[in-house]
Every structure is written in C-alpha cells, then in structure tokens.
Fold this protein.
Amino acid sequence: MPADPCGLDDDERLAQALLEPGPHGYFAGGAGDERTLRANAEAWGAHELLPRVLVDVSEVTTATTVLGTPVGMPVLVAPVAIQKMAHPDGEAGMARAAAAAGTIMTLSTIATATPGEVALGAPADAPRWFQVYVLSDRGVTHALVEEAVEHGYTALVLTVDAPRAGRRERDLRTRFGVPPGIDMPAVTAATGATAGVTPAEFFSLMDTSLTWEHLEAFIADSPLPVLLKGVHHPDDARKAVQRGAAGIVVSNHGGRQLDNVPATANLLGPVVEAVDGAVEVLVDGGIRRGTDVCAALALGARAVLVGRPALWGLTVGGEAGARRVLELLQAEIELAMTLLGCASVADVTADRLA
Ligand SMILES: Cc1cc2nc3c(=O)[nH]c(=O)nc-3n(C[C@H](O)[C@H](O)[C@H](O)COP(=O)(O)O)c2cc1C
C-alpha cells in the first residue's frame, strides 16, 4: 500500500481499504463482465503519443476554456452520485476542491446535497454545472433545475444513457443499498425515503419514454446551455447538435451501463468528425493519466471529465484529497505537454498521435 499517493491509481487502492465492500463495489464497479470498464482505461494507452522536438516549452499552460468558461486545465469533475458515502465532505467538498483546482464541478441529480447547499458551500464565483436525469416525476426535475439556475450553475448536462441501471453484479453480490443516514434529496422528493434504496430502485424513477422530441423541447425551454451526456453513436451526436445541444459528452457512464460497448477512447474520433466543430465535444471514462488527457485532446476533445479518480481522492482525504488528485492530474498534463512539445492546449493536435 503506498504511503503517499503519487499517481491516481494509488488513491484507488487507498480508498478501497477505507470503504466497506458495498459502497466500494458501487463506486468501483461496472456492468456485466466489466469489459467496458477495463477497456475504457486500457484504450487511452493504445493511442500512442508522438512528441515534436525543439519547440519552446519554457512556458507551458494547461489553461483553456470549456463552453466559454475559463478553466485551469482541460479536466472537469464528472457527475458522480452519493458522494457523502465516500466522505462526509460530500459534494460541497468536491465543489470546493474543483474550485481550488480551477475547474468545473458537475453535480449529479442523485447527489447527497441539494444544488443550493453545494453552491453555498463553495466559492460563489466558481463555475458549476448540474447533471439532469429526467425523472417520471417531472415536478422534481423542474424543481432541481430551477434551484440550480437560481444558484448560478452555468450549464445543464442531460444524461441519456441510463433509462435503467446496468447489471452491476458487485452490487448484487454485496446486496448494496444506500446506508442509513445518507440522504439523496432528489430521491427523497420522488419516493419519500432513501435508506436501503438500491441502484435499481433509484433508477426506476427515470422517465424511460424520453425521445429526441423531448430533448428538443427540453433544450428549447432550458434557461441554460444543455450538453448531452452518454452519446456513443456519431449520428446521435449529429442529431443532438441539430436539436440545439451546446455540447456533447462522449461517455459510456464509466462502463456501468451496457457492457461490451466500445471504450470511449475509440468512440471519440468518429463523434468529433460527425460534429465537425459545430459544438464542443467532451469525453470521459478511464482517464487516469496526464497522457490520457493529451490523447483525448489530440483526438479532438475540448476537455475530459473524471469520475472515480476525484471520488477516490474525496474518499481518502475529503475536500483536500479530491483537490490533491486534481492538482496531480494537472501537473501530469503539464509535464506530458512539455515532453510532447506543446506549449498550449491548442497545440495538442492530431499530429501528436503516432
Ligand atoms: C459511482 C459513480 C456514480 C455515478 N453517478 C452518475 C450520475 O449520477 N450521473 C451521471 O450522469 N453519471 C454518473 N456516473 C458516470 C460519471 O459521470 C462518468 O461518466 C464516469 O465516472 C467516467 O468514468 P471514470 O469513472 O472512469 O472517470 C457515475 C459514475 C460512478 C463511478
């Protein structure tokens, strides 16, 4: 066991030792045989990097913008449910960590704090996005979006790859249910209680009848730009752009939904090509190294999101742990860019891939 974590995988090992088997399996696990979960992390490595030499790298910056918002690095915090089960600092601690690391935190609908609590628990001027699951109880969804708007969130991330929970066998084996004392306000609003609730039960709140027509109406009514998360197929990316999406998040939900779908490293290129610069394309799944981030940028992503790595940092050290993980990733990106011969994020282009 490493005493001082020096790579993101070290935090994963430390977090595993701290968590009960049920919560650990829920956080770490994927669907089915976890082929996609493993493939996500492995596939970034298959995109080999090709440095250019004798480039002035005396000043390298990882700063960029995402949907016009300045960020210190092309890494955002992905929406991850039930963060107080990792550490009492929960989502507000994660929001403070993201703000300190100069980036955007995306709050999940299935959070253990309300959009307002998270906004009030973190610096007022820090940018935050809110992830939307459209629930059958539209009143709950509307109320959450209104609260996010009122508290200054700047974009909505509509997740569309989870009409039901994937078959997560780790949860079945541990008989995972949300521990007593961990409240998920959206689930409580829709059902009245959360203790003992299983993932299958909270996913049963989703509106499984959503179609492209609903998306179009949702975007037309939205006071904030809407990114579509969970896009796999290039045609779906095109359709989203035609219906007004402000951005695409190429994601397979960290391998937690349909197993045996391609790794996101392999889905990204075709989606970037289909979108053809009309909107920004983000990607998540298996990003564990600065070199993975560089591969994603070179394949055309504007930025990446990390789910589990930030969560493991939160588990190990609360807000400070999540911040340390994000800063470690930023330092790795800066080093990888320097060795690639890229002084700015815009320099990390397709010609840096072998
Ligand atoms: C424990 C856990 C909970 C998650 N909860 C949500 C969620 O509530 N909403 C959502 O859109 N995605 C959710 N995701 C997916 C993440 O947003 C993201 O797509 C995924 O974690 C990226 O893969 P990575 O963990 O390998 O970085 C969750 C992922 C994990 C690991």
